[in-house]
Amino acid sequence: MPRGKRVMTREEQKALKPEEVLNLLKSGNQRFASGTRNQRKHSKQIRAAVNGQFPKAVILSCVGGVYDMNPGKINFLD
After folding, report:
1. How much is the pLDDT for 28?
2. CA-CA distance, 78 to 62, in Å (whole number)?
3. Contact yes or no for 32/68 (Cβ under 8 A)
4. Those residues with Cβ within 8 angstroms of residue 75's Cβ, 6 or more apart along the chain or in another chain
């Protein structure tokens, strides 16, 4: 299953490069701003993340919807 459609593993998280994460955040923000957000099955992904989450990024004090990411992909600390 493609990485964007499932919960990220620890190994995938460790392999991420900062530029990749920044580009993913920018493209998610562009989808949000244009109204073309991805459709997801959030409840299924939340259940899959119950045993551990390995997010792409941690963002301090931000509204999460503007990045159009799956649950568990980004942690928000407000």
Report:
1. 87
2. 7
3. yes
4. 53, 55, 57, 58, 59
CA dihedral 7, 5, 39, 54 (to 10 degrees): 20
Measured CA to CA in angstroms, residue 60 lies from 39, 54, 57, 78 at distances of 25, 16, 10, 6
Which sequence spans correspond to the domains of the chain? 3-77
Give pTM, 2 decimals.
0.59
Mean pLDDT by 10 residues, the chain (78 residues): 69 92 89 83 79 79 64 65
Q: SS in 3 state form for the chain? A: CCHHHCCCCHHHHHHCCHHHHHHHHHHHHHHHHHCCCCCCCHHHHHHHCCCCCCCCEEEECCCHHHHCCCCCCEEEEC
